[in-house]
Amino acid sequence: MAGPQLTAKLFSRHGAVWATFGHAGASLVGMLLVQRVFLDMLLPHLLPALEAMFASSSRFMAVSNLCGLAGAIGFWGFGSIFAVPALVGCKRWKIQPLRSLDRRMLLQSLPLMLFNSAAGGIFAAVLLTWGLPDVAFDWHECPGVGTLVRDTAVFMLVNEVLFFYMHRFLHVNKRAYQTIHKVHHKWTAPISFAAVYAHPLEVLFGNALPLLVGPLLCRSHISTATVWLFAYQVHTTCTHSGFWFCDDNGMHDEHHAKFNVNFGVHGIMDHLYGTFKLPEASVTAAKQA
Ligand SMILES: [Zn+2]
Ligand SMILES: [Zn+2]
User: Fold this and answer.
1) CA of 147 to the centre of ligand 1 (A)
2) Which comes out higher in pLDDT, residue 266 or 224?
3) How far apart are CA 125 and CA 172, in angstroms?
4) Which of 111, 165, 210, 267 is in the most buried spot, having the most CB atoms within 10 Å?
């Protein structure tokens, strides 16, 4: 089965409108699953090392290490896996099948990508270290299911709204587009790592801040915040991969291709503003499903 058809079968059975709300719901459930897997299966093994790290170094250094680890595995680890099809020149399941990877551009982009990845991690560590209450760093006070559901729903909603308005502003305001957001749009057919190819100000205030406001508002546990940052970095490398295994029906790839559609993450805000548009192949496949 072709990529678009398979994606449509899985996520778009009820057409494009329901696809976005279905996608938001599936993302919430998936995010909760990742949180529970970490708490139930990984944390018991990691607890001694985490407690030792927080006891032997400053809180800022310990949180920086967690943010660095989330970026190293979530962004660079998963991003490398999602980049393989583009790097080997695979055409099957490519969202923009007529486009291929510009390897020279990727090499030239790597220094800024590395800088932004590190800057985003430090920015997150600063806000989480000094923005969360002391109890958030007690590894024996991890959240229960109810708190996890509330926190994750708030994280996603806040990120959808803030990211949408900041991103839309960077397009609507011509000066902001020319001086800041144009950098990210150098990639019209992106590869996973292009998620962080942007003006550093955009990475900090347009990308990282909307992710961090939710944990700060909820006064979440550091484990919940770190796993959220990890999962979101996997998600953003996936949606920039350029292939149909992305988890947003090609929504963000279409933004890079068309510029003036899909400013949000889940499509909810784009539905309200009439800017939601899936790639033609995905829409066609949804109608056939
Ligand atoms: Zn992008
Ligand atoms: Zn844009």
Assistant:
1) 31
2) 224
3) 31
4) 267
Q: Are 96 and 189 in contact (CB under 8 A)?
A: yes
pLDDT tens for each residue of 268-284:
899 889 899 888 876 66
Q: Residue 119 C-alpha to ligand 2 middle, in angstroms?
A: 20
How many whole angstroms from 5 Cα to the centroid of ligand 1? Answer: 24
pLDDT at residue 121 in the model: 97
For ligand 1, the distance from its centroid to the CA atom of residue 219, given in whole angstroms, is: 29
* Angle ∠(169,173,174) on CA atoms, nearest 5: 140
Helices (DSSP H) in 132-208: which residue ranges?
145-172, 174-179, 200-201
| Contact partners, residue 49, CB within 8 Å, separation at least 6 | none
pLDDT 10s digits, 103-136:
999 999 999 999 999 999 999 999 999 999 999 9
Q: Which ligand is nearest to the CA of 169?
A: 2
Q: Which ligand is nearest to the CA of 166?
A: 2
Give 198 Cα–ligand 1 centroid separation in angstroms.
Answer: 9
Q: For residue 195, give the ligand nearest its CA.
A: 1
pLDDT of residue 17: 54
Residue 14: pLDDT band (50, 70, 90) is very low
Mean of the per-residue pLDDT values of the chain = 90
Ligand 2 center–CA 263 separation, angstroms: 7
Q: What is the dihedral of CA 57, 148, 151, 215, to 10 degrees?
A: 10
